[in-house]
Write a structure and sequence with these properties.
3-stranded antiparallel beta sheet; 72 residues; elongated; 2 helices; alpha+beta
Length: 72
């Protein structure tokens, strides 16, 4: 029984890693679609980062570091 529990811990860790690897959006990132600027123009209302994506796609990564580098 202990052997099964020892094997179960890495499996649970892999599952969390697998589901969390595709998105780095944090609670502080709040993306809003800015239709006035274009059909796929997104802007974060927290850090003011912007990105342009094809229509129908939403940003999945936090660009906070890139935005602070630009604005100093």
């Amino acid at each position: 029984m202990a052997f099964v529990l020892i094997l179960l811990l890495p499996v649970i860790g892999l599952v969390f890693w697998w589901y969390g690897r595709g998105a780095t959006v944090t609670r502080a990132c709040r993306w809003r679609l800015d239709r006035d600027a274009g059909p796929g123009h997104w802007q974060c209302v927290v850090c003011r980062a912007t990105c342009d994506l094809p229509p129908g796609q939403a940003p999945r990564h936090c660009l906070r570091q890139a935005a602070t580098d630009e604005h100093g």
